[in-house]
Design a protein that fits this description.
The complex is a heterodimer of chains A (910) and B (178). Chain A is 62% helix and 6% strand. Chain A contains 41 helices and eleven strands. Chain A is extended and about 120 Å long. Chain B is mostly helical. The N and C termini of chain B lie far apart (42 Å). The chains are: A alpha+beta (910), B mainly alpha (178). Chains A and B meet through α1, α3, α4, α5 and α13 of A and α2, α3, α4, α5 and α6 of B.
Chain lengths: 910, 178
């Protein structure tokens, strides 16, 4: 095969492979001319292009090395000569059978004559560096000899024997029959309490070893056996033997083979295990073990492993799912990712247990339990119902961790994340440019030096932003600012230094200002955010005049900030300019275009005069995004679909709105479970709300429930959004569903609101009204009265003129009416009905019920004219339209979570 | 820097490091995986990554670039797998007394022969087009994605995709002929 022929065929193939039919033929004709052989070669290649049999065989090759490698692993035992037959005798021990293979060699079950007992013998495999193995072996024997605890497999003897094939080393130890601790718990179906009790015994054993300065370093369920009842009886040999009874349920830790001494033997061990060598089984390894630095590994590494084991014992799952991960990825996860909380696996485990496991699994050993005894002690407190020493992470610490990892974790204050993401984007851009510069350097050799200098400068700028951000974080030291330190204080402090730190680096400064504006926006400080983003834009225009990608990006990102700062016109202008730039860029940036369109759509949708234009823009944006097939775009399409649903909802086009909300949900769900987007639960709620609006109650409920469930999982039960969804569902059940269920939901919300909010918070009175109305419906008037009275008083004091207050008045008035307190009921009912009537929102079930009661009371009092007028008016009303007077978000009490989101959803990043 | 030396085509730079990686991978394959429990299957990617983890701690700091390492590791993996397949094939031809059914035989050996064939084809490819050769090596034997390969070879992803598509077709033709 000549290189020229090969290259030629390849080149032609690459030219024509994307063409079809005649165009391909023509191109082939042109490229090959009279060279029939070349043409035949290319055609053979084309035939194999894309998914045909032989090509599939090539693709299968990607897996082939995997299978082969697995075979190597199976084979490799045969590289080392081993004695295939069982030795009859080792020392004074008669070999009964082989039990298994340990890391160091074979393990046999053997019979000892005196004392008469059955033991386990570990025999060193005769291979490798004999003298180093021998040293290590003796070392292990020495360590184990120092450990005497019912929870640790006891060592009896270390021996050496001459055989024909050379020296043989062996270790005689207690034979433990049992199951590994995980399987034991499963087969015995132990309760949570029993599992914890068992685990505490494991901790006690580990503590014993730690006190003898021995670290296990490879704690895992496979190394912890528990004798079940029947095997305990068989543990020892003949009846005359000095028996060592293993209590059933006593865990035994095996294999201190890789342990090292924490004190003077450090040097020996370093040689023995090798710097950087990974020991142990990955999922149970502490972050410091994963890094592979033996100097960092101490007894607290075992505490971490214990944490993993406890997590697994309680949930049946590992804290980190490392299946199908490469070693590198697994190591990164262990070092960086926050483990799954117990409560996300099993809600029954939330609270103290969650906290205890969380503390054992801290990444930084200083934050862990400092000993196995401390861990055991907290578990004992837990079992006794006493307060535990570990307290939940302070909010600040969670924030700090998040920032350090620069990762998006749902459920944390979004503002902080934007700070992180913003600077990450800024740095990303700068690094990208540095890279591009390096490429340029390669292409233009003579300018290489110059370009490299430029690249370095770019790197420096990226580092500038990074160090500025670090400064922000550093200045926000929790200890210095107290436990309730707010990141915003830190930001305020640090931003004062922006000129001092970055004054001479305009590019870094622009990037930092941009990141800051995003952060302030997320704290709701839109005016400050607007100031910073305008400054960032000004600098950006100076640095890169004209139409640039980066300028368009800033323009589009500033839109939501300006809009929230009340500068709607400027927001529109920014997005219009961003839209123009997106179209003028070469090549035009379709993602930016779609982004600008959806921003503009949301802005225009906000005003009745421009709502049609908004609809048009949103439709166009959605259409564009559905054709751009990357993840960001599909996510944006999902968001845009929800925005459009919300717009159509406002235009009362419920059917179409429902279709878009459903589309939004579908798009989000196409990303799978791992990809959480904050709008996803909103879209679910939209579907539910719209269906309720359309009278499809049974079809609505699953969506409202799912929305609540997703929020619960991602943000936790007590997150305000979760609570809003809970109240929304309660309201739905009250009006359209099961009032008994509504009561349960309301009571949970009430408990929460009473705990966290100020006593007069409108959301609290909203819940009380809801619960009161539910009880009213259940005809439990006595129970309803105090709730409705309180809500009534709060509303009257805070917002007597608001429409929603009329609802409270009517509920309370009805309650009094049913309790027979007619004189009290009348003025309140009258005020409520009149207020609702003035707002022209009285044609509802509640309105009619209140009016009927009022008419009756007025008639009794002799106010015939009033009663007659009201009666005639109520009868003249059209049928109650749908049900919307109750389920429309605006008509419910304020701040209900009910979606579709009434505010335009502007996107922050493409 | 070695990485730059390698990017600029200094094959001896890779050559100097190859034995180190080879030894490590070989040792890993034979040592670590023997007592792996169920569900913990061996993947070349995992092997290579583990080797990487260990070798980055080398005191001489030779591994300052992840991409560089993977390029060398891919080569080493290929040698290991091909050697292994060759030995296995020879052992089977050498006539063990065990007889296996036709179907089993076909299933059991096709991988090995494919590896050997690919190895041969790769040698041909190395002569006529070193870049395509490298792409295949990294794709098959270090489990790298096209993006990662583009990164190592400092070319755009589109180029790699186009090269890979052509090479893939060529390999398919050759496998069919064989």
């Amino acid at each position: 095969m000549s290189a020229e022929r090969f290259q030629a065929a390849m080149k032609v193939f690459q030219e024509v492979c994307d063409l079809r039919g005649d165009a391909r033929d023509a191109a082939l004709e042109r490229a090959c001319g009279s060279d029939a052989e070349l043409r035949a070669e290319v055609e053979a290649l084309l035939q194999q292009d894309g998914g045909q049999t032989q090509a599939l065989r090539v693709d299968a090759m990607i897996d082939a090395p995997q299978r082969l490698a697995a075979e190597i692993a199976d084979d490799s035992g045969s590289d080392i000569p081993t004695d295939p037959t069982l030795p009859k005798q080792i020392g004074q021990y008669r070999i009964l059978r082989r039990i298994g293979e340990g890391g160091m060699g074979m393990v046999y079950e053997a019979r000892q004559q005196s004392p008469r007992r059955t033991v386990a013998i570990k025999v060193l495999r005769p291979s490798g560096n004999w003298s180093s193995l021998q040293k290590r072996f003796e070392h292990e024997a020495y360590i184990l000899g120092r450990l005497q605890h019912p929870g640790i497999a006891q060592i009896y003897e270390a021996g050496r024997e001459n055989t024909a094939s050379g020296d043989r080393l062996y270790l005689v130890m207690e034979l433990v029959r049992g199951r590994d601790v995980m399987r034991y718990c499963e087969t015995q179906s132990l309760s949570v309490r029993q599992r914890i009790e068992l685990f505490i015994r494991i901790c006690d054993a580990v503590q014993h070893a730690h006190q003898k300065a021995v670290i296990h370093r490879d704690l895992k369920p496979a190394n912890i056996l528990v004798a079940s009842d029947e095997s305990a009886l068989r543990t020892m040999g003949g009846s005359s033997a000095p028996t060592r009874i293993i209590a059933p349920g006593q865990p035994k830790i095996l294999d201190f083979g890789v342990a090292r001494l924490t004190d003077s033997d450090l040097q020996v061990t370093t040689v023995q295990t090798g710097v950087g060598q990974l020991i142990g089984t990955l999922p149970y390894m502490s972050p410091e073990q994963v890094v592979g630095d033996p100097a960092e590994v101490d007894t607290r590494a075992d505490v971490y492993s214990l944490g993993v084991i406890l997590h697994e014992l309680l949930t049946g799952q590992l804290p980190h799912d490392l299946r199908n991960r490469s070693m590198l990825e697994a190591a990164r996860i262990i070092r960086e990712e926050t483990p799954a909380r117990l409560s996300t696996v099993n809600r029954a485990l939330r609270g103290d247990l969650d906290t205890i496991v969380g503390k054992a699994l801290e990444k930084e050993k200083q934050r862990r339990y400092q000993s196995a005894a401390e861990l055991a002690s907290d578990l004992r407190s837990y079992l006794d119902g006493a307060p535990i020493a570990a307290r939940r992470d302070s909010r600040w610490y969670v924030v700090q961790k998040t920032l350090r990892r620069y990762q998006l974790v749902a459920g944390l204050a979004a503002g902080l994340l934007v700070l992180a993401i913003g600077s990450a984007i800024a740095m990303g851009v700068l690094y990208q440019r540095a890279n591009a510069a390096a490429q340029a350097a390669k292409l233009e050799a003579k300018r290489a030096g110059e370009a490299e200098a430029y690249a370095k400068q770019q790197m420096k700028r990226a580092e500038g932003v990074s160090s500025f951000m670090q400064h922000v974080l550093h200045s926000a030291d929790a200890r210095a600012m107290g436990r309730d330190a707010k990141i915003i204080d830190a930001l305020n402090y640090a931003t004062g230094k922006i000129d001092e730190l970055l004054g001479k680096e305009p590019e870094s400064k622009a990037a930092a200002l941009f990141a800051l504006s995003q952060t302030y926006a997320d704290f709701g400080e839109y005016e400050r955010a607007a100031g910073y983003v305008k400054e960032a834009l000004r600098l950006q225009r100076e640095l890169q005049p004209g139409v640039t990608d980066r300028t368009a990006n800033v323009l589009l990102n500033m839109t939501p900030i300006l809009s929230n700062a009340g500068q709607r016109q400027l927001a529109i202008e920014a997005s219009e300019e961003g839209l123009r730039m997106a179209r003028e860029l070469t090549p035009p940036n379709r993602e930016y275009e779609a982004w600008a369109l959806s921003n503009l759509g949301a802005l225009y949708a906000d005003s009745p005069e421009t709502i049609d234009r908004g609809e048009e823009y949103l439709r166009k944006s959605l259409e564009m995004r559905e054709t751009i097939s990357n993840d960001d775009s599909r996510l944006s399409a999902a968001t845009a679909a929800n925005t459009l649903a919300s717009l159509l909802y406002r235009k009362r086009k419920y059917e179409e709105a429902e279709a878009y909300a459903l589309r939004s949900v579908e798009l989000f769900e196409a990303f799978g479970r791992d990809q959480f987007h904050p709008i996803y639960p909103v879209a679910l709620n939209s579907v539910g709300t719209l269906r309720a609006e359309l009278g499809k109650f049974d079809a609505a409920r699953p969506y409202l429930e799912k929305s609540l469930k997703v929020l619960d999982e991602k943000y936790g039960r007590e997150h305000p959004q979760t609570m809003n969804a809970l109240v929304g569902l309660a309201q739905f059940e009250r009006v359209h569903g099961d009032p008994n269920r509504a009561e349960v939901l309301y009571r949970e919300a009430l408990q929460y609101r009473e705990r966290v909010g100020p006593p007069n918070h409108p959301q609290l009175s909203q819940v009380k009204t809801g619960l009161g109305a539910t009880l009213l419906k259940l005809k439990r008037f006595q129970d309803a009265e105090p709730l409705l009275r309180e809500a009534y008083e709060v509303r009257m004091a805070s917002a007597p003129r608001e429409f929603t207050t009329s609802l409270t008045k009517m509920q309370y008035g009805l309650c009094l009416y049913h309790l027979g307190r007619r004189d009290d009921a009348l003025p309140i009912l009258q005020s409520g009905v009149e207020q609702a009537r003035a707002a022209e929102r009285h044609n509802t079930f509640l309105g009619h019920e209140a009016a009927d009661a009022l008419i009756e009371l007025m008639e009794q009092r002799g106010e015939k004219d009033y009663a007659a007028e009201l009666k005639a008016h109520m009868r003249s009303l059209p049928p109650i339209p749908g049900t919307n007077a109750v389920s429309v978000p605006a008509a419910s009490a304020p701040a209900s979570a009910s979606a579709p989101a009434s505010a335009p959803i502007l996107e922050k990043a493409p | 820097m070695l990485l730059h030396a390698m990017r600029d085509g200094d094959s001896s730079a890779a050559g100097r490091l190859l034995p180190l990686v080879y030894a490590e991978l070989r040792a890993l394959a034979s040592r670590r995986l023997r007592d792996q429990r169920v569900g913990h299957t061996l993947q070349p990617t995992a092997l290579v990554h583990e080797a990487f983890l260990k070798l980055v701690h080398q005191p001489d700091g030779a591994w300052n670039d992840r991409a560089h390492f993977f390029a060398v590791a891919a080569s080493a993996m290929r040698s290991i797998l091909a050697d292994h397949a060759r030995r296995r094939a020879a052992a089977k031809r050498g006539g063990g007394s065990e007889r296996i059914g036709l179907d089993e035989a076909a299933v059991g050996t096709s991988t090995e022969y494919d590896v050997l064939q690919i190895d041969e084809l790769l040698q041909q490819l190395a002569q006529v087009d070193p870049m395509k050769h490298k792409i295949v090596e990294m794709r098959f034997f270090a489990g790298m994605t096209l993006e990662e390969i583009a990164d190592v070879l400092s070319v755009s992803k589109t180029t790699i995709e186009s090269e890979w598509r052509a090479t893939r077709a060529w390999l398919a033709v050759k496998l069919k002929d064989a």
